[in-house]
Amino acid sequence: MKQSEITKIFRALLPLFFAVLILTPGCELATDPKIETIGGGGAGTPTGNVTITGSVVDAATNAPVDSVTVKVIASSGIFSGSTNSSGVFTLNFNLTLSQAVTLILSKSGYLADTTQVFASVNNTNSLLPVSLQKVVSSGGGTGVSGPPSSIFLLSQSVASLGVRQSGSLESGRLTFQVVDSLGRKISSVNSSVIRFKFGAAPGGGEFLSPDVTMTDSSGQASVFLTSGTKAGVVQITAEIVTSNRTITSQPVSVVIHGGLPDPDHFSVASGFLNFAGYNIFGLENSVTAFVGDKYGNPVRPGTKVYFTTTGGIILGSAETDDAGRASVDLLSAAPRPVHPTLGNGFATVTASTADETSNTISVSTIVLFSGVPQLTIQPGSGFDIPNAGSQEFIYEVKDQNNNPLAPGTTITVNVEGENVDARGSIAVTMGDTQSRLATRFSFVVTDNKDTSNVPKPVFITVSTDGSNGRASIIISGISR
User: What is the structure's pLDDT at 72?
Assistant: First the structure.
């Protein structure tokens, strides 16, 4: 080949050679980016190397952008580098395992950009070119603030969420504002890395996304909270770490409510097992349904519960509160209840709601409507207590249906006579019970002095007083 032909070929390839030289990282015309570890930590000792390469271009001109700061937030720390004159960056750092990392790219005069990439250990991870948009001046001032000084909550899309698969909102947005020492919104020149963290949390798999981001040109940064499977209060803080201090917001609280009713976490109870409503109308007895979801948390507030009764009148429905309770009043009124097994006075109160499959679930409780008091005693009048001896008395206090009287009812036994005293159930206050065993009592009267066999009169009064009414019985006999 002639020398002239070789010269022509060389001149034709020379521009292509320089183009390749300029665009190739590590060549003389493209300085290597600076790699700086800002912070470290994370579980375990780093065991694998990760390389991330990419380039940054101007969004309007597609020209390379140099001196762009590139930060990587990973489990083992925060790493920083920058683009070279060709807009190219290469970051090398160590990770314990492959994971998603956050990249934050920023340069004065440009809007910062945040992206995520999956970093594979012991591999080179190449990114598509990232476009940065220049800050457009709105006129009237430089628009440059001081460095960040404080963070506060700017807006919150919701005050509460529902647990996962509850039918309520499961995600909400919180936006924080960062300002400088003069209260000005920090500009893009002072754009900062902001990290979001949990304070208190129920621990049901709730998460924040993104947990690390960059403030925008207005000094704002947003995070989305997504609920998990447990109800409770979540506290969220925003944090900026600078070279000389850490700036932290006040904790922001979001309530996570429970899901839909679950049959295994649904129950109902009355305020009183027994109230004096069989003969007295207009008395009130509260009935409360306790409603939980399949995770054992209270259902979301406002869940409807419906009530019915076989005796008296009950308010038809109520909504659950924050603790999953729905309460109504049961009123003593017609019809007087009759239970097919327990008999007169016993009513069945039923609470119903719908579960997550839209099926009706129900639970019931028994409430006793007790009536007017009835008293009997054995032996009756004509008893004879021997000299220095004793006599046992059995008495019953119950209503006309042989049921116990309402709680708080008092029963007293008064014995009058010479040289006698009484021991046993002589001062009783009724508890809240439906058991017919709680209608039978006893006491013993003793002639406590050995005297001549002279009959002396003894009078015994048994009386009751309470919400069912008053009643008494008097018997008489002698002691010797």
Answer: 87
